Amino acid sequence: MNKLVKIWLPLLLAAAFAFGMLVESNILGRSNRQTIIRPRWGSKIDYLIGNIMQSYVDTVNIAELEENAAISLLKDLDPHSTYISAEEFAEMNEPLEGNFDGIGVQFNIQKDTVYVVNVIAGGPSEKVGIRAGDRIVTVSDSLIAGIGISNNEVMKLLRGPRGTKVRVGIARRGERDLVPFEITRGQIPLYSIDAAYMMNAETGYIKLSKFARTTYKEFQDAVAKLKAQGMKNLIFDLRGNGGGYMDAAINVVDEFLPNGSLIVYTEGAHRERAEFHASFRQSCKDLKLAVLIDEFSASASEITAGAIQDNDRGIIVGRRSFGKGLVQEPIMFPDNSSVRLTIARYYTPSGRCIQKPYKQSDEDYYADLENRYERGEFMERDSIKIADSTEYFTTGGRVVYGGGGIMPDVFIPADTSGTSEYYSRITRKGCEYQFCLEYTDRNRTELLKLKKASDFVKYLRSQNIFDQFVAYAEKQGVKRDARGIRQSRQLIETQIMALIARNVIDNEGFYPIIQDIDKTLMECLDIVEKKSLKTL
């Protein structure tokens, strides 16, 4: 298990840091605030660049010099003040804007071929007849199969301004020749809520991946749907949520708190204190609430968890959050590049700033989560080191601490049960994803008859899906291991069933199945059902 964690943890950290740094809260107030300026550096830099332009021996790229100067100016500030090129700015903001222009498919690259996993309902591809399971072999008459194409290269080919057209050649099961399609690109929605369903008769579950432009409306719709199904308790899952827009977090929290309750406040050396209070929304005021967090919950997720905790409105469950309490404001340049400049700290209602220390090197800052793992923090609450020993108090008088993330009310360690060397070998080879795609493709007609997650579980078990997978993995070079199979069977079988269900009915199939091996979620469910409203 240690080997597996050492391999994957740095990759997860890199993804989390990239997301958290570039989509941090940039809202002061409840509308976007952007500063657009012309690039002017200090007098010495102006003077130097002017002389380079007029006198330097060779021709130089002045724009590149200016970018390097901006990066150099920012490097001694904080880890989240950063320069973003025009191309990066568009790519980083897209997940938060709620839509993009493209053809409307989810795809994977398997065996050097672009495989359509899902077709977005109502999107351009569905309208012309593209189906899940299709292989995209050509784009605009150019071969893209068998050439080692990357995900980014595929997206560049298929995305484009709405109204423009792209031709694709599709290899389809049962068809001897490529099937040609011309697709008119359109606006494709991006959703921030991954799942919203009832775990049982009274407890609803909402999984939020980011705080985006559309998050509040999505959240309202999800709550309304679940309340109509009898929801009295809510588990709000912010694990892995790297943040986003501050106003989206404020609006969501507003639904839980009484009118006038302090949600968050911001303050900086050049920014006066700005407070944000709950209004009269309160659509969730009668719900028992538990918020799930982990070490990848950052920024707007921490604003949410901190407001709920400090107002004694719900219980926080999981592991200590990331620890990002800095507010960025975008400074836009005429060429669409930008700087995200830290202009304030945010504070939870009790007065906590949960920003972890950053005065050491950037390398130390970015290695913090890996260090937490090495110290055993993911497994033992007593291993957690709190940077700020100051005691803060919730509205109910409970002691809380700042200086390095939100500490959960109930600590639940990372779950390593079910892992084995056999499991590590099949995951390193990606066997489960390949098997599920191929199985879905071969059996799509039967699978399309299944309408909900429980149907998939019943059907796939009747097909001895686990035995089929073990045989498949052996053909891929992973030898049978009786002990490992026995130890990891439930973990593997549940993941396979959930992935197949996702290939057919998306996350509505995935999350209700995968919850059975989600120890944190199941313990949280038990807590919610046993505790009274007063203690939540």
What does this structure look like?
The chain is α+β, with helices and mostly antiparallel strands. It has three domains: 1-98 and 204-214 and 240-298 and 319-414, no CATH class; 99-189, Pdz3 Domain (Roll); 421-517. It is built from 19 helices and 22 strands. The strands form five sheets. Strands 1, 2, 14, 15, 18 and 19 form a six-stranded mixed sheet that branches. Strands 4, 5, 6, 7, 8 and 9 form a six-stranded antiparallel sheet that branches. A hairpin with a 7-residue loop joins strand 8 (165-171) and strand 9. The longest helix has 24 residues, at 482-505. The chain is globular, with a radius of gyration of 25 Å. The model is unreliable at 1-32 and 36-41 (pLDDT under 50).
TL;DR?
The protein is α+β, with helices and mostly antiparallel strands and 536 residues long.
Characteristic key phrases:
536 residues; alpha+beta; Pdz3 Domain; six-stranded antiparallel beta sheet; 19 helices; 39% helix
Topology readout:
Elements: H1 2-22, E1 35-36, H2 43-55, H3 62-74, E2 82-84, H4 86-97, E3 99-102, E4 105-110, E5 113-119, H5 124-128, E6 135-139, E7 142-143, H6 151-158, E8 165-171, E9 179-184, E10 186-189, E11 193-198, E12 203-208, H7 215-228, E13 233-237, H8 246-254, E14 262-268, E15 271-277, E16 288-293, H9 300-310, E17 315-318, E18 326-332, E19 338-347, H10 362-366, H11 368-375, E20 392-393, E21 399-400, E22 410-411, H12 421-428, H13 431-442, H14 444-447, H15 453-462, H16 465-475, H17 482-505, H18 507-514, H19 519-530
Parallel strand pairs: 1-18, 12-13, 13-16, 16-17, 17-22
Antiparallel strand pairs: 2-19, 3-10, 4-5, 5-6, 6-7, 6-8, 8-9, 11-12, 14-15, 14-19, 18-19, 20-21
